[in-house]
């Protein structure tokens, strides 16, 4: 079993390589993602959508936080330079809150926390194809 910090570093490295299969492999079978743009959905379809919307990802880790009170939670804080399929570069900081299955290093839920207002205002919703 990997430590939670190692799982988060593996996640950020895989996201930077656009290696969505590795990311999905970090999740428990029932794992979910909650996204400001897409709502809550199972991990595999979420990362399929991200793959379809993405050209490249550059991830700059800022910090990893491990919970004191809840031993099944950890947070990855990073800058995300996301080039979407139309060539637009969208840069933002994000805190990804991971919850893990008890006594496991498998992710049961991932909450993506970032300010969507500047992204929507300048770039629209990059998960949806243009009309």
**Ends apart, CA distance between termini:** 46 Å
Strand portion: 35-45%
Oligomeric status: single chain
**How much helix is in the residues?**
25-40%
Number of helices: 4
- Round the Cα radius of gyration to an integer and report it: 14 Å
Which structural category do the helix and sheet elements fall into?
Answer: alpha+beta
> Major sheet, described briefly?
6 strands, mixed
- Give the ordered list of helices and strands: HHEEHEEEEH
Strand order of the largest sheet: 2-1-6-5-4-3
The coarse overall form would be globular
Could you give the count of β-strands? 6
Output mean pLDDT.
89
Q: pLDDT below 50 for ≥5 consecutive residues: which ranges?
A: none
Overview of this structure, please?
There is one protein chain. The chain has 131 residues and is α+β, with helices and mostly antiparallel strands. 28% of the residues lie in helices and 44% in strands. It is built from 4 helices and 6 strands. Strands 2-1-6-5-4-3 form a 6-stranded mixed β-sheet. A hairpin with a 6-residue loop joins strand 3 and strand 4. The radius of gyration is 14 Å and the shape is globular. The protein starts with a helix and ends in an 8-residue tail after the last helix.
